[in-house]
TrEMBL record:
Family according to the record: Belongs to the ROK (NagC/XylR) family.
Native source species: Reinekea blandensis MED297
Tagged with keyword Electron transport: no
Protein's recorded name: Probable transcriptional regulator
PROSITE patterns xrefs: ROK
Recorded coiled-coil stretches: none
Length: 394
């Protein structure tokens, strides 16, 4: 075996151990080795290295849990304060920042309101750089972030860190990573919000056995993240997987991307609100971005008295089912998880979704893939971008 191969294997093992500790720690070394099928020698070598880098802590041995020889186990974990990263979410008219520690735990929120659609390219670079400086000044020196992760609504090239298009911005093709790294002198990672959600889900204990799955994020737009062979799949050009802009009907409803008939143009919050306003007099104060409250009003009305609205959500479910059936036929994934703020209406879409799936695919194909709704109780995109920023410097 060449030396470079050995080094590659060592780095891959180290990455696996860090991921496992981030998700499951604290844990005994012997259990870590068994879970990852790594030899005791490998676990000892890598955990010693992490200890030398001051990235590992040992918890006091517990007396209740003992190994077979009766010795108390020492539990190890990532040291939460070994270093910190900054997670920033860029959405329409808002920059939201959180500190993430080495374990991936999130704290210290700061929100800056600004008219994002009025920003030039330079204006955007300056706004983010000054937001990062403000955040830095608000935390003690030992918590100053070592890296920045930016979650963006829209289409992003995760490989070169370019924002291709975002509903939050009037400018397109913005080389954000390159320009910001010059200004703030920190490594910058950029991902779209659906990939961030996917990374957050990949770090939840109950999904650890999955290696091939997709997460569909319903919300203002429709995004998707895909994990293939255990890794986030960005595609050859870095902008996979734009499920929301795959087509339902080529000459169909207008999509915000500029084309017609995308899945998002039927299922996104803005599309549902637009189509509902053709049925009822609705406030258009915030038509660019219907608020959570405005969307909840539609859900309540559909549940209580409006058959037309129920039909609208059912149609959204059928369009979603159409897209999902293509996904299943093409990729044969283990699981498709549906989440995001727009999944507040999942119960109104589910029957339409399932009907379309059953109509589109032979049952043998569907049976292999499970579809699950994961409730959106908190904004998981921040957690995901923190993890991506950590992994960039792990
Ligand atoms: Zn589109």
């Amino acid at each position: 075996m060449k030396k470079t191969d050995t080094e590659q294997i060592r780095l891959a093992n180290k990455k696996q151990i860090i991921h496992y500790l981030r998700v499951h720690g604290p844990i005994a070394r012997v259990d870590l080795g068994q879970a990852l099928k790594l030899s005791p020698a490998t676990v000892t070598a890598i955990t010693s290295e992490l200890q030398q880098e001051a990235r590992l802590i040992e918890h006091p041995a517990t007396t209740e849990k003992t190994n077979t020889r009766g010795r108390p186990r020492v539990l190890i974990d990532l040291a939460p304060d070994a270093f910190h990263v900054l997670g920033l979410k860029l959405s329409i008219n808002e920059l939201k920042m959180h500190l993430g520690n080495h374990k991936g735990q999130v704290s210290d929120e700061m929100v800056i309101d600004l008219d994002t659609r009025a920003l030039s390219e330079e204006g955007l670079f300056d706004a983010i750089a000054s937001a990062v400086r403000r955040f830095n000044a608000s935390v003690p020196a030992h918590k100053r972030p070592k890296a920045l992760g930016i979650a963006v609504q829209g289409v992003v090239n995760g490989l070169n860190g370019e924002i291709i298009w975002s509903p939050a911005l009037a400018v397109r093709k913005v080389p954000l990573k390159h320009e910001l790294e010059q200004r703030i002198q920190l490594p910058v990672t950029i991902a779209n919000d659906a990939n961030c959600l996917t990374m957050a889900i990949r770090h939840q204990r109950r999904y650890q056995s999955l290696t091939d799955f997709a997460v569909i994020m319903l919300g203002y737009g429709i995004g998707m993240g895909m994990v293939i062979n255990g890794e986030l799949y960005l595609g050859h050009h870095g902008a996979a997987a734009e499920f929301g802009h795959s087509k339902y009907y080529p000459e169909g409803a207008q999509c915000l991307c500029g084309k017609r008939g995308c899945i998002e143009a039927y299922v996104g919050d803005y599309a549902l609100y637009r189509d509902a306003s053709a049925l009822f007099p609705l406030s258009w104060d915030n038509s660019l971005h219907p608020t959570e409250d405005s969307m909840q009003v539609l859900v309540n009305k559909a549940e209580s008295d409006s058959k037309e609205l129920r039909d609208l959500f059912q149609r959204a479910g059928r369009v979603l089912g159409h897209g999902i059936s293509n996904l299943i036929a093409l990729l044969s994934l283990e699981k498709i998880i549906i989440s995001g703020p727009g999944s507040r209406a999942y119960h109104l879409m589910e029957a339409g979704l399932m009907t379309n799936l059953e109509d589109s695919l032979v049952s043998d194909l569907i049976a292999e893939t499970t579809i699950e709704h994961a409730a959106w109780d908190e904004d998981m995109t921040i957690k995901g971008i923190v993890v991506l920023a950590l992994e960039a410097i792990d």
